[in-house]
């Protein structure tokens, strides 16, 4: 959503203010927000505004705050989902739930997912070693995150 100019906002306000009394009621605001993809409720607007109609200044501050808040919300939602997914994946690997992924855990999950062929003789110790920054032989969440940001079989591909 691109930032909106004061001129635009003034035009929007004029459009909403059908009877030209310099006030816009929250019902009209509600429909406007809905149209531009900000889904909220009348109650929420009323709570935020503290009244049922807004003059231009109210409208300006409300619109500004509302749009900024929604954009921030959407961004943190995205971040949140990504971390959530990673954390879920981590839990899958961390079979005994001690907060670390051991070589045995990694191996058994990869085998189960069909990502590892037992006959290939691939050693999970090596895989862990690549991402095991503090060299304790297991992967913590931070190290796991690094591992997941790179596809598992990248050893011979160019970057
Ligand atoms: Ca574990
Ligand atoms: Ca480690």
From TrEMBL:
InterPro entries: EF-hand-dom_pair, EF_Hand_1_Ca_BS, EF_hand_dom, EF_hand_pair_protein_CML-like. Residues 4-39, 81-116, 119-154 form the EF-hand domain. Keywords: Calcium, Metal-binding, Repeat. Coiled coil: none annotated. GO terms for molecular function: metal ion binding. It comes from the Eukaryota. PANTHER family: EF-HAND CALCIUM-BINDING DOMAIN CONTAINING PROTEIN. This is EF-hand domain-containing protein.
């Amino acid at each position: 959503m691109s930032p909106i100019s004061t001129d635009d906002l003034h035009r929007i306000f004029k459009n909403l203010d059908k009877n030209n009394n310099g006030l816009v009621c929250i019902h009209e605001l509600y429909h406007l927000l809905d149209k531009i993809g900000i889904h909220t409720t009348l109650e929420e607007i009323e709570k935020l505004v503290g009244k049922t109609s807004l003059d231009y200044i109210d409208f300006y501050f409300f619109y500004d705050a509302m749009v900024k808040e929604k954009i921030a919300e959407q961004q943190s939602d995205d971040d949140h989902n990504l971390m959530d997914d990673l954390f879920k994946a981590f839990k899958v690997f961390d079979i005994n739930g001690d907060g670390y992924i051991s070589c045995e855990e990694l191996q058994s999950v990869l085998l189960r997912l069909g990502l590892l062929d037992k006959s290939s003789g691939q050693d999970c110790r090596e895989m862990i070693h690549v991402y095991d920054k503090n060299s304790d032989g297991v992967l913590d969440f931070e190290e796991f995150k690094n591992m997941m940001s790179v596809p598992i079989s990248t050893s011979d591909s160019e970057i």
